[in-house]
Specification:
single chain; 77% helix
């Protein structure tokens, strides 16, 4: 057994702050998307790649960094990811045109691998009684940071040049790099073997096809040859990749482990939970900023809307340790069922389009509580079912499943809000029915996640759970 860290609180704080940095990278350009076509002399379709490039790069980097972390050291690969993010942020601050800025956003996508690596480091270094709370905070940091960063990035976007956002991101990621290097020691846990380069290339190409089709479906048309062609190619690539992974000695993703009922169904539930969680992050701020003449909006500025949503970050911070305590006493599966149920309730409340700001705050906070409980339980279930030498790869795959859920939610939001519209003072806006449909779809997804979690079998008999995880959360 790996000797626990002598500074568990410090390790948790440093690694969780890296998770906050990841969420900053995700939302960095969101406030400026409507302005970038004018600022960079680019079309809205080209500007959309500032989001798509980060999403696709993150999806490819997450499993690759996870596998390399298991082989060569999780801390080492976390430092590599943070260095890539720092380079991308610096490049973004200096970018002379939209093409370079898109490349910078792709480098920032490496941040997606940080969450899974940080969770796996906690498993290896923390004493058993601190594993659950540490993983819960790290897992929820993505939502916490998103809630906190939106008003900050919105304020900077309104008051200063967009380059300051990338410059601040470069300073933040560089600081994270030096904190991890100074405060977090390397885990001695190694899986060994050779890196599966063909598997990495195959999975990367398949993911690029899927995510491009999902993220660009509303723009290109869901029945367009490009979208249908990408999906068809993805099916062929995934089939060939799966066959390859079953034949190589050291696969990028061990599909036999991933096919265990606990792992498989938890990953499927993660897709639904990602969908159910992301609807609130995407749409609540739009509801708050919509003009009052729409009948459902409140006419707030971007900064004011971000301030209204600050309780989301506070709720996730508070309920992450609560999730750990529930998992320790009742099991991570119970926590997941509870979290997804609360998430469904919050989405149903938002689907009614609350008529006052306090009611919106209450509904969005309920959604955040459910997301915190659910997201904190997912890594515990995954790590309780996989060998200790494969935790980073397994967590990276689970992170990828959440990303597929959030990107699918983005696609549904784009499709619904562009098809159900209304005219207000000469401006075309999503209708109230569009928001109701999306929030109800998110609620259904959360209920599906709850059902899957409830019926998923416990860890198979005969498998040995790693001691820290088994002690932190027994299903």
């Amino acid at each position: 057994m790996v000797a626990p860290s002598a500074r568990p609180a410090l390790v948790i704080g440093v690694l969780a702050s890296c998770g906050l940095a990841v969420s900053v990278m995700q939302t960095l350009v969101v406030p400026l998307l409507p302005q970038f076509p004018r600022l960079l002399s680019a079309s809205p379709a080209t500007v959309g790649w500032l989001v798509t490039a980060t999403l696709v790069a993150g999806a490819v980097c997450a499993p690759v960094l996870g596998r390399l972390g298991d082989m060569y050291g999780k801390r080492r690969l976390m430092l590599v990811a943070l260095a890539m993010v720092t380079a991308g942020s610096t490049l973004g601050a200096l970018a002379p045109n939209i093409g370079v800025l898109i490349a910078a956003r792709a480098l920032q996508g490496a941040a997606m691998g940080v969450i899974a690596l940080g969770i796996s480091i906690m498993r290896d270094l923390l004493p058993p009684e601190r594993v659950g709370s540490g993983i819960a905070l790290m897992s929820s940091s993505l939502g916490i940071g998103g809630a906190i960063s939106l008003p900050i990035t919105g304020l900077v976007a309104q008051q200063a040049s967009w380059r300051w956002l990338f410059g601040a991101a470069a300073v933040l990621s560089a600081l994270q790099f030096f904190l991890v290097r100074a405060m977090v020691r390397e885990s001695p846990q190694r899986s060994g073997g050779r890196f599966d380069l063909p598997g990495a290339v195959g999975l990367g190409l398949a993911l690029v096809c899927v995510l491009l089709a999902i993220s660009k479906g509303a723009e290109w048309g869901w029945n367009s040859p490009r979208v249908l062609g990408l999906l068809a190619v993805a099916v062929v690539l995934f089939a060939a990749w799966g066959r390859l992974e079953l034949r190589v000695r050291s696969p990028l993703v061990d599909l036999r482990v991933s096919a265990r009922p606990t792992v498989l169904w938890t990953n499927i539930a993660s897709v639904l939970i990602g969908f159910g969680m992301f609807a609130g992050f995407l749409l609540t701020t739009q509801v708050l900023q919509a003009p009052t003449a729409s009948g459902y909006g409140f006419g707030l500025s971007l900064v004011a809307a971000g301030v209204v949503l600050l309780p989301i970050g506070g709720a996730m911070t508070i309920f992450s340790p609560v999730s750990a305590r529930v998992s320790r006493r009742r099991g991570a599966r119970t926590t997941l069922v509870l979290g997804t149920s609360v998430l469904a309730i919050g989405n149903v409340a938002m689907a009614t389009l609350p008529g006052s700001i306090p009611l919106v705050m209450a509904a969005s906070t309920v959604t955040a509580i459910g997301a915190a409980l659910a997201y904190s339980a997912l890594p515990l279930l995954i790590m309780d079912a996989v060998p200790a030498s494969e935790t980073a790869a397994a967590n990276s795959l689970n992170t990828l499943m959440r990303m597929l859920g959030t990107s699918s939610c983005s696609a549904v939001v784009a499709a619904v809000t562009t098809s159900l519209t209304m005219a207000v003072d000469g401006q075309v806006l999503p209708s109230a029915a569009a928001y109701t449909v999306v929030f109800l779809a998110a609620a259904v997804a959360a209920v599906g996640g709850a059902v899957i979690a409830a019926v998923t079998p416990a860890r198979q008999a005969g498998t040995v759970a790693p001691e820290p995880v088994a002690a932190a959360a027994r299903a």
